[in-house]
Every structure is written in structure tokens, then in C-alpha cells.
Amino acid sequence: MGSEALVRKLPNDIGGDAAGKIERVEHELLPWEKRCHALADVLDFHKIINTEEKRRGVESLGSEMIGKLSYYERWIVAFANILFQKGILTPGELAVKMQEVEARYTTPETSHHG
Amino acid sequence: MSDHDSSHDHDHDHDHDHPHAPITADEKPGYYDVMETAVRELLVERKLFGPDEIRRQIEVLDSRTPALGAKVVARAWTDPDFKSRLLANGRSGCEEMGITFYDDTQLIVLENTPDVHNLIVCTLCSCYPRPVLGLPPDWYKLKPYRARAVYEPRAVLEEFGTHIPDDVEIRVSDSTAVIRYLVLPMRPEGTEALSEQQLADLVTRDAMIGVIPVSYLKEAA
């Protein structure tokens, strides 16, 4: 067996696997999670990333990231990767924009470091 | 203008009694939160979609709750012609009731009977009839439900407190990106005198996923 199971089943393909008890967990989406969901829908409406591409994008994150990232964390990372693959964005552009967004929250007045 | 308040500027009747962290303008957002903002802003700058589209879609998402599915179920219980049309084409049946499908999905409505109990799942991810039920609960998206529903549905149902007798067939339908399912639960006994709205009030999200039946407890019992 060993590595064969990895070839036969990609990380998303868990139907039929052994698994634990169902914990009936729910949570109200955080604002960014809801925006991420809306972003997914809008990307689909505009035929930029459809649902199946999103699912494959999550799958291609690999089992370690799938295991460690939360649901919408996986989505946004998958979207970024797909947008890079399609040549719509580059990793450099995203890094610069993320710094710019973060800088909006790191002005001295709002720093709580004592 | 911040998007942080965009999920709260609607006037839908909305269950909001969950505690959640207060959202303050100067709270430093997390890495993935920043990534979402950055991706969205870059795509808007490239004019791939308009800045208001995300806000409008959040309003659409907030407007979709299991109450819509419940209305469809109650109508199917009370109008046999509607039920036939709904079972023939779930999407057009829902659209008849004014429920728009904002995504490119088809809907198959699965009728529970004394002989057949239906359960829906998405083993690969989290496909769900969002236009009629809203967003799925977390447990629907997590491994235990997705992995086990397809091979031991009776044990899964027992964990939800639902016992399906051995002589009742259980059918598990695995959703895809383009085909979604909705369970039409059995109408409980003793509800003959209820109005369509009163019937709809009995129908829960979990009953339309198929993990519990619709129950009706008479006050006078």
C-alpha cells in the first residue's frame, strides 16, 4: 500500500474514508469570510474562476495546507494561485498590494505596543 | 469606506444573537483577511468587476436562508401539481416561487417517502443548494460528515438522533459543482389543519439536508 493511496485519491476525495464522530459545529462567518464568499461568487459570475476551478485550486494546495488552513483561508489562497496561473495577477503585485493594505492599519496612533 | 459594515447594512430579518468579536476600525486584520482585500482591490483596479459587486453579493448571500427552502417544501406539501413540477425540475419549481438562482447550478429535489429516506452530502468539498438554503453549516463541510455519509449513512443519522428503520432504503446524493440537491421531507402526521405558513415554520435546514425528519408536536398531546 504505502504511497499508492496518495495516487489513487487526491486530498479532497475523502468520501468513504474512515473518520471520527460528527461534531455539529457552526459559526457565523467573519466579515472577511463573507467577503471571500461573495468574491468567489463574483469571480464565477464573470467567468474568471468557476466553482470547479476553485475546487481544484484548493485541492492543489496539497494535504498539509488543506489540513492547516481554515475553509476560507484555503479559498483565498487558491484564488491567488489561480489568478497567478491565468496571468491575471503576479505574486509580486499581490505582495505589494498586501503591504499597502497592511500599512493602513499600522499607523503609530493605532499601535498598542508599549 | 470600509467593507466591514457591509454585512450589517441590510434590513432582512436575521438571526444575530451569536457573540462575535467587536469589529473596530483600527484592529489589525489577519494575513488572509489582508490577502482577500488585496486580491479584490487588484481585480477592481483591473476593472474585472465593479467595486459594488462584492457588497451586492453579500446582500444576496444574507437574503438566502433556510426559510426559502421551507416555503418550497410547504408549498409542495399542499399543492400536488406544484410538487410534480418541483420534482421534475427543482430549479424552475423554486423560481416559480420567486427564488432566483444566482449561481449556475441545477437543483434536484429528492422526495422522502415511507420507503426511501434521502440524505445530501458533498464528498469533495461543500456544494450545497445555497440559493434556497443559504450557506451550509460547518459540519457539512468537515471531514467526518463528508467521509462517512456515503458509506455508513445510518450511523451518521443516528449521531443526529435520527433512526431510520432497516426496511427503509437510504439514498445518499453526492452534490457536484453544477448539480445540487434538496430533500423534500415527509409531512408530519397531525398537520392537516395547518396553513402553508405554519407548515413552513416546521421545516428546518437540517430536515432539508436529510439528517433529521420534520417533527410536529401537538400542544394538547
Q: How is this structure best described in words?
A:
The complex is a heterodimer of chains A (114) and B (221). With 114 residues, chain A is an all-alpha fold. Chain A has a single domain (27-107), classed as Nitrile hydratase, beta subunit (Cyclin A, domain 1). Chain A has helices at residues 4-8, 31-45, 51-59, 63-68, 71-85, 91-103. Chain B has 221 residues and is an alpha/beta fold. Chain B folds into 2 domains: 31-63, no CATH class; 66-209, Nitrile Hydratase, Chain A, CATH 3.90.330. Chain B has 11 helices and 4 strands; from the N terminus they run αααααββααααββαα. A two-stranded parallel sheet of chain B has the order 1-4. A two-stranded parallel ribbon of chain B has the order 2-3. In chain B, α3 packs across α4 (80-88) and α3 (66-78) packs across α10 (196-202). The longest helix of chain B has 15 residues, at 31-45. The interface between A and B is large, with 61 and 64 residues.
Summary keywords:
heterodimer; A: 114 residues; mainly alpha; Cyclin A, domain 1; 0% strand; B: 221 residues; alpha/beta; Nitrile Hydratase, Chain A; 2 domains; two-stranded parallel ribbon; 11 helices; globular; disordered N terminus
